[in-house]
């Protein structure tokens, strides 16, 4: 650590421990100082930094205004709340109507546990965007080409600033993908913007602060458009090439300059812009990108470029009537991964190995003769002869010719010295890159670099244990979670890139423990609302070009509509996502009720990719349906919808009765045949009658023992089994499963070199063999929950009250985990010390926790004997327990 960093860390620490309490971590709509806020009532959140034992916020005041100096003096001309006696750390803006294009400053004043004023927060800001379709000045433009034309188009214009510039903003709405340039420089570090939506129902725009890039005098704006999911030219089984919205990519841009004298000017996209084809000769989000450097037009996005040969742009219709701001953490190239090795295969080809499986792109740097064609084939596996093997990931691709090979970038050299290529409008899933050149070129290990791309969600969780395999499972789970997060959750980054609902249900809790992903989930739920049919039906992949309303969309997959809002509510304590989707959940539940009036639902794919045993679809789907109705009833209660609460509580009871009447054998205390999934899913979904829970859990533990403490589940059982065991007194059994290193187990993948999770327990299976799937990723959440015991409490969600219920499982010596929730960081650390366990917990200011320790054991807190008969209630601070 550099000295400066050390000092910074030390001073941050001091500011929390020794100095006065203060609200920190201010965010608007869960983003730091965001631009482009369209919400008329944005949510403002903060945390209280106060390291004192028992610290809490007794009151707060939020001040919002146009003048930062006034706000810092406590004057808010837009909104100033009274002193609100409340521990709340979320306030929804209720001040004067927000104006478009306007920066608002805000700060929070808190009062501590003793009613003493804290140091006020630092000043934070948010800036509104267009706040409505009517404010756009620009014309949607494209070039004259049709959907099948392969090269990506360039667009440019120039303008002159007339006076001294105070600030400048670019607002760009795109159907397709874009890169925006000002005076030759790329604006921002986002990749694959804007995010994928159902383009004909909702189109996103992105806002940039370009004040620093605007030159005095002449300026040039350049826009490069890519196809993305909008103009899907590659053909695969999901029919994206048949999308009703499909057209040549198009954009609308407003470039708004505010001058020092208070006047402003907007430079907009229109038919005077010029366009030309770029050197990107093919771009497909699904397959790859081709670039012919011989077609380079140096300086195309700068002022002095001669664009006489370019054509005028062409006005296009608006892709949707709903152009809204993209208020989501962007996709970025988050990690740079140098190649670990290079292997020469023959005179034409070499293979680079990144040493780990990722989603993203590679960048090659090379020099060679003009016209040399370099092909970069990206894959997850190698054939025995060392060449890259695509057979596990290209099987759903239906190419019409050989010009668009799967996961193969094609780079044609200009011959002008050293040149580099990295795709702009594509990403892939890969560990290996086979590089083939039409002419001899020099390549070494440094010639190729990998970039791990994904939604750049901030990490909020840590897990480290004394078992290295468990640590690697956690790492691989996070890698697969991130590899499958691109503004919507996907199943895999290579074969499909589909927003498979079922995979996302399983991944959501895992993701929420490790990453601050609320913005992505809120966006994806808007995608759900766009896709839902009036009768409540959802497609199995979201977004979709139409595929998926007819296959795979039973409640075991599309329960995302209820389960994701519920999980986000549990983790963030913010009801908005439940309120926004309430009507959609209700329509969904009503539709299933119409189709399955008995309460038993047989719609679904069932326990997908099982090890060996197959459970009835009706058994698992009914449990999912039951869980949805349970969530709906709870949401009705929270939102004060008393009639609905009564109605759906009755429906819940009906489903529970129908299910248990059919599947529960009361004599033997068993469900159906007593398979792992058949016992685990009902337990996990809470449909087991109370008086049978212990017996069913015991049966499940016996079943697992009979299966030699190995899994016999598919994805539904895989999510349920760990919690079903550890929540019902069998954490040791769950840990035995988790720590296996032989087939079938997570550890078996790790022992075979996995750095991501796989699609199939059987590494040598013939189908379903992607090496980067998140659908068996439930174990990630279980490590925090089942071993670390960090759990949200639905009575006080958002970790306002934390449940700390660690399991000191046999066979593990140490666990060290943390999760930073809306109030701050929660840590749960335990360590064996001879026959005793030392357990240390920290919970943040303004929260309380119930610590549940193993009953019947002797325990002490800071040296003083305590009873473990019931939960030990603690307030903010650090506590050391010893359990003998
Ligand atoms: C996907 C899965 C998905 C499944 C649905 C597969 O092709 O990769 O992850 O959930 O289809 O059946």
TrEMBL record:
Residues 163-335 form the Bacterial alpha-L-rhamnosidase N-terminal domain. Gene3D superfamilies: 1.50.10.10, Galactose-binding domain-like, Immunoglobulins, Maltose phosphorylase, domain 3. Residues 460-786 form the Alpha-L-rhamnosidase six-hairpin glycosidase domain. It comes from Mucilaginibacter pedocola. One of its GO terms (molecular function) is alpha-L-rhamnosidase activity. This is alpha-L-rhamnosidase. InterPro entries: 6-hairpin_glycosidase_sf, 6hp_glycosidase-like_sf, Alpha_rhamnosid, Bac_rhamnosid6H, Bac_rhamnosid_C, Bac_rhamnosid_N, FN3_sf, Galactose-bd-like_sf. It holds the Pfam family Bac_rhamnosid6H. Residues 1-20 form the signal peptide. It is an enzyme of class 3 (hydrolase). One of its GO terms (biological process) is carbohydrate metabolic process. It catalyses: Hydrolysis of terminal non-reducing alpha-L-rhamnose residues in alpha-L-rhamnosides. It comes from the Bacteria. Residues 344-454 form the Alpha-L-rhamnosidase concanavalin-like domain. Keywords: Hydrolase, Signal. Its EC number is 3.2.1.40. Residues 789-863 form the Alpha-L-rhamnosidase C-terminal domain.
């Amino acid at each position: 650590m550099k000295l400066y960093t050390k000092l910074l860390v030390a001073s941050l620490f001091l500011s929390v421990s020794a100095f006065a309490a203060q609200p920190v971590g201010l965010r608007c709509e869960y983003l730091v100082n965001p631009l482009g806020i369209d919400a008329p009532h944005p949510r403002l959140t903060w945390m209280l930094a106060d390291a004192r034992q028992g610290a809490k916020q007794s009151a707060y005041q939020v001040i919002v205004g146009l003048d930062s100096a006034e706000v810092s003096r406590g004057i808010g001309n837009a909104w100033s709340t009274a002193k609100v006696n409340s521990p709340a750390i979320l306030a929804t803006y209720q001040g004067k109507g927000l104006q478009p294009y306007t920066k608002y400053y805000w700060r929070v004043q808190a009062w501590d546990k003793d009613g003493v004023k804290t140091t006020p927060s630092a000043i934070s800001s948010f800036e509104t965007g267009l706040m409505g379709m009517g404010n756009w000045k620009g014309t949607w433009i494209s070039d004259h080409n049709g959907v099948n034309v392969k090269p990506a188009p360039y667009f440019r214009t120039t303008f002159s600033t007339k006076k001294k510039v105070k600030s400048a903003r670019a607002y760009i709405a795109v159907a397709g993908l874009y890169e925006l340039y000002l005076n030759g420089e790329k604006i921002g570090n986002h990749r694959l913007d804007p995010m994928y939506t159902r383009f004909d129902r909702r189109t996103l725009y992105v806002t940039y602060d370009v004040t620093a890039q605007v030159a005095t005098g002449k300026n040039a704006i350049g826009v490069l458009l890519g196809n993305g999911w909008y103009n899907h030219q590659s053909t695969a089984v999901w029919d994206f090439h048949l999308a009703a919205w499909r057209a040549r990519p198009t954009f609308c841009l407003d470039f708004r300059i505010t001058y020092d004298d208070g006047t402003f000017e907007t430079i907009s996209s229109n038919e005077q812009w010029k366009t030309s084809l770029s050197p990107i000769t093919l771009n497909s989000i699904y397959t790859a990108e081709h670039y012919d450097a011989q077609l380079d037009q140096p300086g195309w996005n700068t002022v002095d470029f001669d664009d006489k040969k370019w054509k005028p742009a062409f006005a296009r219709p608006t892709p949707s009537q709903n152009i809204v701001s993209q208020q989501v953490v962007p996709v970025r190239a988050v990690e740079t991964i140098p190649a670990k090795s290079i292997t020469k295969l023959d005179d034409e080809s070499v293979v680079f190995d990144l040493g780990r499986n990722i989603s993203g792109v590679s960048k090659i740097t090379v020099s060679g003769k003009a016209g040399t064609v370099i092909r970069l084939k990206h894959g997850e596996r190698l054939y025995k002869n060392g060449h890259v093997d695509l057979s596990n990931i290209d099987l759903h691709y239906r190419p019409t010719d050989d010009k668009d090979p799967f996961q193969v970038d094609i780079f044609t050299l200009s011959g002008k010295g050293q040149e580099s290529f990295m795709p702009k409008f594509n990403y892939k899933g890969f560990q290996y890159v086979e590089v083939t050149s039409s002419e001899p070129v020099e390549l070494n290990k440094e010639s190729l670099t990998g970039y791990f791309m994904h939604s750049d969600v901030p990490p909020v969780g840590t897990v480290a244990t004394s078992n290295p395999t468990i640590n690697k499972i956690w790492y691989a789970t996070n890698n697969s979670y991130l590899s499958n997060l691109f503004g919507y959750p996907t199943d895999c980054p290579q074969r499909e890139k589909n927003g498979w609902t079922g995979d996302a249900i399983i991944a959501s809790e895992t993701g929420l423990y490790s990453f601050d992903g609320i913005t992505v989930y809120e966006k994806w739920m808007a995608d759900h609302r766009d896709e839902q049919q009036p009768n409540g039906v959802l497609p199995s992949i979201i977004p979709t070009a139409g595929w998926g309303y007819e296959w795979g969309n039973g409640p075991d997959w599309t329960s995302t509509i209820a389960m994701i809002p519920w999980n986000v509510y549990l983790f963030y304590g913010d009801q908005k996502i439940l309120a926004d989707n309430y009507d959609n959940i209700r329509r969904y539940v009503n539709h299933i009720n119409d189709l399955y009036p008995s309460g038993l639902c047989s719609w679904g794919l069932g326990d997908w990719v099982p090890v060996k045993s197959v459970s009835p679809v009706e058994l698992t789907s009914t449990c999912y349906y039951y869980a949805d109705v349970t969530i709906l009833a709870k949401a009705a209660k929270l939102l004060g919808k008393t009639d609905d609460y009564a109605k759906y509580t009755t429906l819940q009871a009906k489903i529970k009765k129908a299910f248990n009447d059919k599947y529960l054998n009361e004599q033997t205390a068993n469900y159906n045949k007593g398979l792992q999934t058949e016992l685990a899913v009902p337990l996990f979904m809470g449909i087991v009658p109370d008086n049978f829970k212990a017996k069913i859990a015991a049966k499940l533990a016996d079943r697992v023992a009979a299966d030699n403490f190995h899994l016999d589940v598919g994805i539904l059982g895989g999510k349920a089994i760990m919690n079903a065991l550890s929540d019902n007194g069998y954490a040791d059994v769950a840990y035995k499963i988790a720590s296996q290193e032989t087939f079938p187990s997570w550890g078996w993948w790790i022992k075979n070199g996995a750095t991501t999770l796989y699609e199939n327990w059987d590494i040598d299976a013939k189908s379903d063999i992607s090496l980067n799937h998140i659908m068996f990723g439930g174990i990630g959440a279980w490590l925090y929950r089942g071993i670390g015991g960090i759990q949200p409490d639905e009575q006080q969600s958002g970790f306002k009250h934390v449940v700390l219920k660690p399991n000191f499982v046999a066979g593990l010596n140490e666990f060290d985990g943390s999760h930073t929730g809306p109030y701050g960081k929660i840590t749960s650390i335990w360590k064996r010390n001879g026959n005793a366990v030392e357990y240390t917990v920290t919970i943040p200011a303004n929260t309380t926790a119930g610590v549940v320790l193993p009953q019947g054991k002797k325990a002490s807190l800071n040296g003083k004997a305590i009873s473990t008969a019931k939960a030990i209630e603690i307030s903010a601070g650090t506590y050391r327990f010893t359990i003998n």
